[in-house]
């Protein structure tokens, strides 16, 4: 079953400790070392604007370049980082690094950063963001903060207050993994999000499940009526891409369009041409 322990902001489908093969205390110590010795890296996955057929920006995705285990995905360590509170300094690093990187790209490209509910409640997210915006010098509206529905499960008043403060800075707020929470439509009432990202499970269901097409189309309609952008995540086939385009999604993201890319590959891509009209399909995530 998906990892859903109340405060986890992340949906993972395998027990992370089994895969990484160490106990929780060891992993916590390793994470502290990783932060100190700079073992974290950001990968960036392009987001395709379905109106202009150009990339609108990139989502920053955290990776851990572990000295023995290679490139470790977030599902293997973020749940423990959330439980131990280490997600706060790690998340601060992600924000600083992501904004600094985006500052090197052409100015129309956006940067999306995932933020854990633990950061919204316990961290000093607003201060971190203010400093990172100033240090990078990028326009505030280029920054998008992605939160999941789990922020509403605990301390939701405090989380909403933080979201309002972030919004007041002029950054955009996206609701990630939409449709997988307990009260998906209720969350849309609770906060005026700039964007809904429908979860990839609904996109995968297009191939098989009865009714999936109707649900996927209804979410695009809800977004349009609420004046929100809508992103379809997890696009793996041309048929899925055609489907979400026809349904009216404003953006698409997934392995068909591009895998998450290392920093240097993104730099080459964004300067290869102004418009980047042809999304590359051949990038492979290393590791
Ligand atoms: P997410 O924010 O929903 O990110 C999308 C995830 O789906 C990424 O996994 C991405 O690599 C993967 N993905 C993209 N396209 C496809 C596709 O076509 N098919 C499939 N099967 N998967 C696709 P990743 O990078 O392993 O990240 C997993 C989750 O970890 C993210 O889900 C997000 O919740 C969390 N995460 C990643 N980076 C950060 C971070 O810096 N901070 C926090 N708090 N959470 C993060
Ligand atoms: Mg995300
Ligand atoms: Mg998602
Ligand atoms: Mg997800």
Short synopsis of the structure:
The protein is of the alpha/beta class.
Bound molecules: ligand C2E, magnesium ion
Number of strands: 10
Instruction: Tell me, rounded to a whole number, the average pLDDT.
Output: 89
The largest β sheet comes out as:
8 strands, mixed, barrel
Distance between the termini: 26 Å
Describe the structure.
It comes from Devosia insulae DS-56. This is Diguanylate cyclase. With 287 residues, this protein is of the alpha/beta class. Helices cover 41% and strands 19% of the residues. An 8-stranded mixed β-barrel has the order 1-2-4-5-6-7-8-9, surrounded by 4 helices. Helix 4 runs parallel beside helix 6. One magnesium ion binds at residues 176-177, 197, 199, 233.
Give descriptors for this structure:
287 residues; alpha/beta; eight-stranded mixed barrel; 12 helices; globular; disordered N terminus; binds ligand C2E; binds magnesium ion
List the helices and strands and how they pair.
Elements: H1 16-20, H2 24-36, E1 40-49, E2 55-66, E3 70-72, H3 78-84, H4 87-102, E4 110-114, H5 117-122, H6 125-136, E5 143-148, H7 156-168, E6 172-178, H8 184-190, E7 195-198, H9 200-205, H10 212-225, E8 229-232, H11 238-247, E9 251-252, E10 261-262, H12 263-272
Helix pairs in contact: 4-6
The protein binds ligand C2E and magnesium ion (3 copies).
Protein name: Diguanylate cyclase
Organism: Devosia insulae DS-56
Domain EAL: 24-274
